[in-house]
């Protein structure tokens, strides 16, 4: 759902933490390569986010609440969502999502996001991994 002041979306993409670049030091200096897994993950995020793009990018200060729904481990008993105090770290999960939303033109620059919650949970029994996002003007 997108309006001029708020966007709510569920991206059907499993959350991942992937380094954007790989660096190698050789005799010729440092060489930087784009990680293929990162490129594919970004492609999936942008494709999913494009379905919720507002008519014009949100401007001004923004709040972004993001919930990363991780796959429920087989060892966990059946139940509702619960916090996932495991790797990957929240800050490693959020960076590619913010970059994808910038590429999809939800906003002009992810620096506009000044507040928001980042939550990691195991999905409820039978729930697929996804990324839930609510962005609103502050």
Structural class: alpha/beta
In the CATH scheme, the class would be: Alpha Beta
Strands, total number:
8
Q: What kind of sheet is the major sheet? A: 6 strands, mixed
| Straight-line N-to-C gap | 18 Å
Q: What's the pLDDT, averaged over the residues? A: 92
Describe it.
By secondary structure, the protein is α/β, with parallel strands linked by helices. Helices cover 20% and strands 33% of the residues. It has helices at 36-49, 90-103, and strands at residues 6-11, 21-26, 29-34, 62-70, 82-83, 113-115, 118-122, 130-137. A hairpin with a 2-residue loop joins strand 2 and strand 3 (29-34). The two termini are 18 Å apart. 22% of the residues are buried. The mean pLDDT is 92.
In short:
The protein has 2 helices and 8 strands; from the N terminus they run βββαββαβββ. It is α/β, with parallel strands linked by helices and 138 residues long.
List keywords for this structure.
single chain, 138 residues, alpha/beta, 60s Ribosomal Protein L30, Chain: A, 6-stranded mixed β-sheet, two-stranded antiparallel sheet, 2 helices, 33% strand
Please outline the helices and strands.
Blueprint: E1 6-11, E2 21-26, E3 29-34, H1 36-49, E4 62-70, E5 82-83, H2 90-103, E6 113-115, E7 118-122, E8 130-137
Parallel strand pairs: 4-6, 4-7
Antiparallel strand pairs: 1-8, 2-3, 4-8, 5-7
Helix pairs in contact: 1-2
